[in-house]
Amino acid sequence: MEADRVEWLTRTVEEPVDATVEICDPHHHLWDTPTDRYLLEELWEDTGSGHRVTETVFVECMSSYRPDGPAELRPVGETEFVADLAERSEVAGGQATIAGIVSFADLSLAAAVRPVLEAHVEAGRGRFRGIRHATSWDLSPEIRNAHTKPAQGLMGMEGFRAGAAVLADMGLGFDAWLYHPQITELAELAHAVPDLPIVLDHLGGPLGIGPYAGRRAEVLEAWRSAMTAVAACPNVSVKLGGIGMAIYGDGWHHRECPPTSDELAATWADPVRWCIDTFGPQRCMFESNFPVDKRGCSYTVLWNAFQKISEPYDESERASLFGGAARRAYRL
């Protein structure tokens, strides 16, 4: 992360609201590029910044793909890369352990995705839990589509659903990253493959930029309607996060100082609590989405906001939101 962005984050500093709450962070990335680095040391700097984070789940971000060999098998390099880091995390002592790995495999391969998934399972050394095939797509040129370059309506295509059925048959799960106009497509997939455990990332992607800018009430109305449909599918859980991302239109990254946890909670408490009440606490999990959300707020501030948002819920419900649901979804 750029030095000026790191300095910017230090302008809003908070102590943890409650450092005794055990947290499983079910969504973070790891990468080492010419312009940015987020590996174990950087992850531990965040997870060790005050809250009690004991376990994490890595989610795919095109890191360390194999440089050659069959194209469909190159993403297995990411699982190999993270499995090495996960083993290091297990022996570190006093640090968060990478307990689960979610990588990428092209579900459009249909039945031919099985050997790719088998290679991931072997490379994961007991930690591989499933794949994320990002399908986020929007007609507007102002909205960046997923790194997987998905086609419109991908989740409804026969080959994709056949690949999803292979995932289910192997006892693996599917992470969904999409934008809010696509949520009903996910509900249809969940009905079509009812044995497939699905985790919907980042609140279902309620956009706030491009043609959706300045239309928050309208977006959330459409989002609630679609989320109600997907909540009716018992095989779908939802991650409560992504609220630091620029595409949600809050503009945190443009401010002179980062938001406080009170500001994050004031903006997102109603939609997040609506999710918890609609899906139930047993199918909802708070997530950091770091370092992506780090462009909008610090790790401690983010989890403080989650603790404030979750205040109306009882102890057992909060235990699910901060770890139980994630451990169930990823079989940790």
Number of helices: 10
Query: H/E order of the elements?
Result: HEEEHEHEHEHEHEHEHEHH
Count of DSSP E strands?
Answer: 10
Largest sheet: 8 strands, parallel
Superfamily (CATH H level) name: Metal-dependent hydrolases
Strand content: 5-15%
Describe the protein in words:
The chain has an 8-stranded parallel β-sheet. It has 332 residues and is an alpha/beta fold. It is globular and about 50 Å long. It starts with a helix and ends with a helix. It has one domain: Alpha-Beta Barrel (TIM Barrel). It contains 10 helices and 10 strands. It is 38% helix and 14% strand.
What's this model, at a glance?
The protein is an alpha/beta fold. 38% of the residues lie in helices and 14% in strands.
Name its key features:
single chain, 332 residues, alpha/beta, TIM Barrel, two-stranded antiparallel ribbon, 10 helices, globular
What are the SSEs and their pairings?
Layout: H1 3-9, E1 22-28, E2 31-32, E3 37-38, H2 40-47, E4 52-59, H3 76-92, E5 97-103, H4 114-124, E6 128-132, H5 158-169, E7 173-176, H6 183-192, E8 198-200, H7 216-231, E9 236-240, H8 261-279, E10 284-286, H9 299-309, H10 315-329
Parallel strand pairs: 1-4, 4-5, 5-6, 6-7, 7-8, 8-9, 9-10
Antiparallel strand pairs: 2-3
